[in-house]
Recover the amino acids of this structure.
């Protein structure tokens, strides 16, 4: 058999497709740092869209729309908008919700008051938190050197499953759009990243 025939008859290995998660977030430090950690898993790939000074909900949505318009993804992928309820009005979040219900692989996750509340749930039940300042104070009790751009995921990683359970238990009945009171729907995404 010639060398050419041997090459043509050789079976090629197939590598399973990694599921892609595309995230457009309000924060340009904490959220990208947190979600990038999941890229160590072989089954998934998390792509975080970064841009400074574009943190209003409509900018988070436009960043995603623009990216998806130009991206050529082989399925499967999911697109996630991650924002804080914080000081935004419901009418500012509504376009994000409307976008998220257009396709089964479009999603919106909101933390009330902020993303740090999701981080706090890795470490405790988050009771008694209703403001950003209260959340930050409690988080620093657990991680004294915490900063948005520099935190150690190894301190949060052991609590991922517990954070999912805590957030899910607070989301009863599941909110239709976003948490009106203290809570977070980020667990919906992390549940997939942690188990896929």
């Amino acid at each position: 058999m010639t060398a050419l025939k041997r090459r043509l008859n050789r079976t090629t290995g197939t590598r399973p497709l990694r599921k892609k998660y595309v995230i457009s977030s309000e924060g340009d430090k904490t959220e990208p740092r947190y979600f990038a950690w999941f890229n160590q898993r072989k089954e998934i790939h998390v792509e975080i869209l970064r841009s400074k000074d574009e943190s209003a909900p409509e900018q988070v949505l436009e960043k995603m729309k623009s990216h998806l318009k130009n991206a050529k993804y082989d399925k499967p992928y999911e697109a996630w908008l991650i924002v804080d309820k914080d000081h935004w009005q419901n009418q500012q979040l509504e376009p994000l919700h409307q976008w998220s219900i257009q396709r089964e692989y479009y999603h919106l996750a909101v933390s009330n008051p902020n993303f740090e509340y999701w981080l706090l749930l890795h470490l405790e039940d988050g009771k008694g938190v209703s403001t950003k300042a209260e959340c930050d104070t409690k988080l620093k009790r657990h991680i004294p050197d915490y900063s948005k751009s520099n935190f150690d995921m190894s301190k949060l990683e052991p609590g991922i499953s517990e954070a999912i359970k805590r957030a899910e238990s607070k989301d009863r009945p599941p909110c239709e759009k976003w948490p009106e009171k203290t809570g977070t729907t980020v667990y919906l995404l992390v549940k997939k990243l942690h188990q896929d």
Remarks:
- DSSP finds nine helices and five strands in the chain.
